[in-house]
Amino acid sequence: MTHVTGELAGAGAPLRPGSPGRTVAPAERGGLRIADQVVAKIAAQAAREALDVLPPDAGPPRATVVVHHDTARVRIGLELDYPSDIGAQCAAVRRQVTQRVRTLAGMEVPEVAVQVERLHSAQARGAAQGRTQ
Fold first, then answer.
1. 24 and 83 housed in the same domain
2. 42 and 77 in one domain?
3. Are residues 14 and 51 in the same domain?
4. Cα 38 to the chain's mean position, in Å?
5. Do 57 and 90 lie in a common domain?
6. With contact defined as beta carbons under 8 Å apart, do 44 and 80 qualify?
7. Fewer CB within 10 Å, N- or C-terminus of the chain?
8. What is the distance between the alpha carbons of residues 31 and 36, in angstroms, rounded to a whole number?
9. In the structure, what pLDDT confidence band is assigned to residue 6 with cuts at 50, 70 and 90?
10. pLDDT per residue over 65-124, tens digit each?
11. Domain region containing 106
């Protein structure tokens, strides 16, 4: 099979993007758009990964995301055990969400807002188990 290059085709003869012998630059290949919902799933999974243990009766972390170009602003809602170091857990969630969204979706994450929606008391859980036994 013979490949035609720009020089062999003649001076000034442009090659079409799909013609043999031409490498198409990445910017000319098309675009990729990752839906907000996909980024939200990545963020929710990353929040789960960041938390060592979820309270037994807690719901999974939830995420909402607003994507603008290559930037994602993330809001995470989660439930934590109490007593625990809430600040450290929220910081771990922020770090993990930022890293995973950047790695998997190729987006910058300037903001991760973590909202603790409920605290699950280990003491109250123990008292409830004592009453039912």
1. no
2. yes
3. no
4. 8
5. yes
6. no
7. N
8. 16
9. very low
10. 999 989 999 999 999 999 999 999 999 999 999 999 999 999 999 999 999 999 999 776
11. 32-121
